[in-house]
Amino acid sequence: MSSTTPDLSPTAGAARRPLVGGVLAAITGSHLVNDMMQSLILALYPILKGQFQLSFTQIGLITLTYQLTASLFQPLIGLRTDRRPAPYSLPFGMGSTLCGLLLLAYAPTFGLVLVAAMLVGIGSAIFHPESSRIARLASGGRHGLSQSVFQVGGNTGTAIGPLLAAAVIVPNGRTSVAWFAGAALIGIALLTYVSRWYRAHLAHVAVSRASPAPVRPATASADCVAVPGKVGWIIAVLLVLIFSKYFYIAGLSSYYTFFLIQKFGVSVQSAQMHLFAFLLASAAGTLIGGPVGDRIGRKPVIWASILGVAPFALALPYVDLAWTGLLAVIIGFVLSSAFSAILVYAQELMPHRIGTVSGLFFGFAFGMGGLGAAVLGVLADHSSIVQVYQLVSFLPLLGIVAALLPNRR
Fold first, then answer.
1. HEC-encoded secondary structure of the chain
2. Domain at 44, CATH number
3. Could you tell me if residue 216 is inside a domain?
4. N or C: which end of the chain has fewer CB within 10 A?
5. Residue 408: per-residue pLDDT
6. With a cut of 50, which residues of the chain have pLDDT below it?
7. pLDDT by residue (tens digit) across 294-339?
8. Does residue 230 fall inside a structural domain?
9. How many domains does the chain have?
10. Which of these, 240, 235, 289, lies nearest to 406 by C-alpha position?
């Protein structure tokens, strides 16, 4: 893109405005609600397996359904909203998730469970590209910090899901999932507030387009955008890192409760508490990657986050219960710091395509998570969960490809 082209995108001038705390808090809170409802599916796996007599392949198919739905739609929605913003798409997406949650509570067949998972996936596909864009708009130029705060909302929601399942759903049955509809309504209210702010922002941008904009000198990001081949290569490296992270996380999170029950004979509730500890550590780690990347650069954070967990991942399948819990917490904390740094790194390469980039990376992450859960479910049916954990422990070694990324601040 030529340096003489004025920036007319909705993100224009974001770095010159102060951080909008209320909007960032609202979008983070709605991310918590959205991902909490998604994680209820994950936490329901032991109950669904018993009620419908499911194989591990079918368990993986549930994950594949909602994550593949999100994966396919997110880049398309991001591309569409880059061209034609849709501020009120956010509460609509949360409404789709609400419908999926209610269907999940009462679905009488495995087929309808998959439909419920698909509705949740559609809600996620609508939510993530636009909400990531708004987190950046509200950042006041502190893009890494805002993405980390936004991500920690989602990871906290994901961590709360198993805890709520252990406290509410396991004692009261699957239909108690419907009780969480109130949380979805809160999410819709928060997103309506955010949508109003975003509409006002778009109106401000439209007014500014009528005024002549000064020509700005080319930036490092603009230079990268001017070389599509270079950008494409960097994006490919980042997607390999996303594959490594999310394929591994799919195996670790989707089957963690089964791994603990099969290997150590713990109860379902005890396994849910271990899953909560892992996911809570993931939420805490998410808060680190963005602001540290703002200070020292994205590449060191990406490098340390993915390759740094390899020794712990390789040891996890061979240790006792206490060490398993500790190593899982360390892995969750360290590995989760990567995504915010990867996403902001990619957004800085294509600053005029924030929705497309966000949709691509969220979508690819969801797709790899879903594909990983499905593939590893098939392997678990033909071998064992323990052997699956031994196999996927090598994936963080792919973090070595971070060496190919340019050093950018």
1. CCCCCCCCCCCCCHHHCCCCHHHHHHHHHHHHHHHHHHHHHHHCHHHHHHHHCCCHHHHHHHHHHHHHHHHHHHHHHHHHHHHCCCCCHHHHHHHHHHHHHHHHHHCCCHHHHHHHHHHHHHHHHHHHHHHHHHHHHCCCCCHHHHHHHHHHHHHHHHHHHHHHHHHHHHHHCHHHHHHHHHHHHHHHHHHHHHHHHHHHHHHHHHHHHCCCCCCCCCCHHHHHHCCHHHHHHHHHHHHHHHHHHHHHHHHHHHCHHHHHHHHHCCCHHHHHHHHHHHHHHHHHHHHHHHHHHHHHCHHHHHHHHHHCCHHHHHHHHHCCHHHHHHHHHHHHHHHCCHHHHHHHHHHHHCCCCHHHHHHHHHHHHHHHHHHHHHHHHHHHHHCCHHHHHHHHCCHHHHHHHHHHCCCCC
2. 1.20.1250.20
3. no
4. C
5. 62
6. 1-15, 213, 215-226
7. 788 888 888 888 888 999 999 999 999 999 999 999 999 998 888 8
8. yes
9. 1
10. 235
Q: Quick one: pLDDT at residue 90?
A: 92
Q: How far is CA 23 from the centre of its chain?
A: 19
Q: How many CB atoms lie within 10 A of CB 79?
A: 16
SS3 state of residue 166? helix
Give the residue numbers spanning the domain of 31. Answer: 19-208+223-404
For residue 144, the model assigns a pLDDT of: 80
C-beta of residue 358 within 8 angstroms of C-beta of residue 342: no
DSSP letter at 151 equals H
Question: pLDDT value at position 190?
Answer: 95
Please indicate, yes or no, if residue 242 is contained in any of the structural domains: yes
pLDDT at 1: 37
pLDDT of residue 91: 94
Are the CB atoms for 220 and 377 separated by under 8 Å? no
